[in-house]
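Feature request, filed as a ticket because there's no other form

It would be nice if the structure record came with a short human-readable summary line next to the tokens. Right now we just get the raw output. Example of a typical job, pasted below so the devs can see what we mean:
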Amino acid sequence: MFIYNIDPVLLRLGPFEIRYYGLFFVLGFVMTYFLLVYLAKKKELSITKDDIADLLLYIIVGIILGARIFYVLIYNLPFYLSNPFEIIAVWNGGLSFHGGLIGAAIAGFYFTKKKKIDFYEIADIAVIPVALGLAFGRLGNFTNGELYGRITSVPWSFKFPDAEGFRHPSQIYASFKNFIIFLTLWAIKDKKFPKGFMFWLFVVMYSVLRFIVEFFRQPDPQLGFIIGFLTMGQILSVVMFLVGIFFIYRVYKKDKSQQA
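Raw output as currently delivered:
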């Protein structure tokens, strides 16, 4: 068992702070850019480095808007109805991955339509570095001492500040989950699949692994357990899984019809 004593601030410059979380975010963004450039060139896609930089900006905006709107509506609507100005206070926390994925997909779809690029050609390679970026993001959550797990007595548990008892380091579990997704997608990136398969495989893999990790993560205090022992994250992951399986079936069916 460990006592969590990580200072989340790497460097203080007067009123300004450089946090490990921010560094992980920047690292994820930079790696995503260079991996996308590499993969786009390898796949011989008609997209420039400037296009990729613009795409990432669209995706970041989509993620933030989607994640915030989804969190407000699904996770804590009564609070935000009573405190409407808190809706824009993203710095106080409150983002949903599921909403962020929807926002990113919408932003990416808009960008590809604007540039007249096939959405799935970009989405199939984008999910690879995105999975890696998510892995670094969860490490950032760990350095912030947030999104910790449930009380446990396992030898690798942590005593987080302001948290009762020793907890599962569920941020590390979530990071490991995303590394698994990244390595899987990277390993099969050169194989021949129908357009859209890689994107929806990411959706399915994330939903399954997120469902498992949720058993170790502390439920959101304002929601607790929704149905029996299931959290909101698990319910949304079930929906995500079903949607992913449906569209994998669709892309394979479309691919077969085109080959007939």
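Something like this underneath would help us a lot:
The two ends are 60 Å apart (CA to CA).
The CA atoms of residues 185 and 191 lie 10 Å apart.
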